[in-house]
Amino acid sequence: MVDATENSLVIIEAIHEHDRRGVTAIAEETGLAKSTVHSHVETLKRTGYLTESDDEFGLSLRFLRLGLDTRRRQPH
What we know:
Largest sheet: 3 strands, antiparallel
Strand content: 5-15%
Oligomer: single chain
Radius of gyration: 13 Å
Structural class: alpha+beta
Strand order of the largest sheet: 1-3-2
Low-confidence stretches: none
Distance between the termini: 33 Å
Number of helices: 4
Helix content: 55-70%
Number of strands: 3
């Protein structure tokens, strides 16, 4: 298992559970170091998976696009 990938997914789930979260709250909830959370959220933000407002992160609509594309590709 790749720890970095697992950490990103844990962070995504934590943000999803609470809608918007700051780095400190995510670190406390997940048990990850703040520096680790910061690196992951910055990468996820830069790649379009997270949005940031007032130092809080939320999921972007990129996840919706992926889900809709996946649903469209499913056989009927």
